[in-house]
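Provenance

Sequences were taken from public entries as deposited. Structures were produced by running a predictor on each sequence independently, with no templates supplied. The record for Zn-dependent hydrolase from Halovibrio variabilis is shown for reference.
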Amino acid sequence: MTELVFTECRIGIQSRSWLKTAATYSEPGPGVTRVLGSAEHRALLPVLADWYREAGADAVWLDDAGNLVGRWEGSLLDARTLLIGSHQDTVRQGGAYDGIMGVLLPLAVLSEINRSGRRPATAVELVAFCDEEGTRFASTLIGSSAIAGNFNRDLLAVTDSDGVTLADALRALGSNPDQIDRVARQPEQVSGYVEVHIEQGPILEAENLPVGVVTAITGIERHRLTITGKAGHAGTTPMHLRKDALVRAARAVLVVDELCHSTDDLVGVVGQLDVTPGAVNVIPAEVTMSIELRSPDSAIRRRARLDLMERLAGALDGSGCQWKVETTYEQNEVRCAESVQWALAQAVEDAGYPVRRLFSGAGHDGLAMAHLTNIGMLFMRCKDGLSHHPDESVTTEDLEASGQVIRRFIESWPG
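Predicted structure for Zn-dependent hydrolase:
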């Protein structure tokens, strides 16, 4: 990584200190595991609130969706509010930067602005969203969708593996999910939303750049493919008479991989594979597998879906096995607003860096926030492009560089 020289690196040093402490609020084991409503989440909240106050927040509160919010008033009392935020939760055995860095780095920036004695024109609210990953309840964007006003109240009844409902998990944080609708903001109150996030990819590192301006957040669709064959004794059933569901599933995995390799701006994965009965000496009778496709362009993704179905038919029809595909999730891509992209790009230039524009292949809270207001994102370089892994890593210099960009952005945002 490029070695950048700053006289003090105050923002980078402060944010790294907070990030190191936040990472200790984790379940035992490799990396960081902090899921919605867990003991670790509950313990971190008052610590975050204290940091907000130390950074000069005029008000700090936990809303009824489990989001921690701090507000810094602006010099123009009638200006709309700029929202900045990211999520507190992690995947299991994740890293110390995904999500929470987008809270603590802007917090260090706001602390520096407050320390200078100046106020930006617009009020700023920093939001630590309760859940983006969906690790515990398999429902992503809970906190941001509540603020954006498109939260599905049916999710409050969803249970985790222990039978605990989402509503009860929010109550454990100190929120009142019965009043979750009150969390929603009105578009006329908000001037925009910005999120800072590690890139989770290798482009910035490969191009030796500390930051990049995000153009779009990828669209995602997920499917469940079920292949049904016939179980039988693995030692007595002749090979030519078998209806082995796993053999057909292996071909389906290759279909997905080949499709994504041959289609520009498309990525995909088979991340789950469940085999029944799963015995060492029994021919697999049924396989259920996940298929995920992602693209920043809905037209590409939808064409790929049609192509996938044709290729699966070619690989599975006539095999003696039955198969079906169910769509389990679809989220269209979200374009970052040109006005926010321009302001971020100007801040990058003012901080002395080249402007690199790139799209995000991962989902973010901006997907929900786009229902409320114009959104933008700033990516920060991470080592080896690694994320969702204990070895996530960033430098203090890149934290400082990103912080300098965000400070310029906040101080120039018109409200």
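The longest strand covers residues 219-228.
DSSP finds eleven helices and 14 strands in the chain.
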